[in-house]
Please model this.
Amino acid sequence: MIEKNNKKTIRSWAFFDWANSAYNLVITSTIFPAYYTIITTTKEFGDKVSFFGHTFTNTALSNYALSFAYLVMVIALPVLSSIADNRGNKKFFMKFFTYMGGIACAGLFFFKLETLETGIICFMLAAMGYIGGVLFNNSYLPQIATEDQQDRVSAQGFSYGYVGSVLLQLICFLFVLKPEWFGISDASLPARISFLLVGIWWIGFAQIPFANLPSEKKTYVSDKNIIEEGFRELKKVWLKLKQMPRLKYFLTSFFFYSMGVQTIMLAAAGFAEKTLKLGTAKLIAIILIIQLVAIPGSMLMSRLSTKMGNVKVLIFVVIIWIGVCVGGYYIQNEYQFYALAAVVGLVMGGIQSLSRSTYSKFLPSDSNDTTSFFSFYDVTEKLAIVIGLFSFAYIEEVTGNIRYSIFALAGFFIIGMIFLFILHKIEKKAIANA
Model:
């Protein structure tokens, strides 16, 4: 029996966010996108690159690669979560994906234009490692915290993630801005050292949750039809959802607004570099603003949800995200981008933390298959990212203007908001009947 609300366990769980958020900040949000855009933009070919003999727009290629990585995980996670539920070995999978992601990040140390294919493969493997680790870490939430504490614990995890990632980002910042302090003359080396540090940081700090999170009692089942069993678990969750209107409408809304939230988070750096030519230093400064604002933003959303209710706060936050998409289309200079970044930071952590805890609250209290439910949650989010990133990349390639891509994301948020309003009505009716 796992003891709930144990402070040491919760702190250890939160340190997983501390460990892997460095990947999110350095690889998906700041140094890697800027480095990638710079080295793949040449005088001879402009922003076109050749990948295994096929020509792509550079930012579209990276978005396609991420989309493919997420698609692979959408297919793999149901099977893996089924194995974890049946055998009680979710910690094993947390370790597997952490080591895969950390080693792939370290492998980006060797990424240059002439090793584009290898670099993109490492980029995809790092994303898969992050995705898998997050799923199995999330599935611990209802097991380590009671329902009344899950908003706070979820926000604590995201706060740890922001603090940890900013600390590493500042270290990387020194290498990028002051390479002469370290005797570095190769212009590409500071960025590549940063990728190596992410891998070391990710694997190193993950040892804290690995050591302190409780292990489940192991059971052994036949490997026969294990793939079928994994998707059967998803089908079970889907059938249960039909009897749970709150979960059904929440997940539908989550699916659509995640297309927007996650795509913006993954593509924002490339968008900023391509439209405003900010350079690595300014881009890092902007992302640091986002991270620092996100810490109080996440805690603020947690407190507001206590007073107003999760669904009302989510509606409010989604409306802000719609404004972000419209603002991104019209943005013309770096100062406007600074302001927009501050708004994104305020709502970025809040919507992620609140989504995770809202889903956890809506789960049946007597459920023993939390990994399967969180697998469904993660599959929903990852499938949304696949569609969002693919749409973003495709619109850019067709129109030749990345601004149209960011504007189109507003449509996903609007659909998500409509389903949140339906969920709000269901909750009001339930309260009135009670």
User: Anything to note?
Assistant: Residues 7-212+237-433 form a domain with the Growth Hormone; Chain: A; fold (CATH 1.20.1250.20).
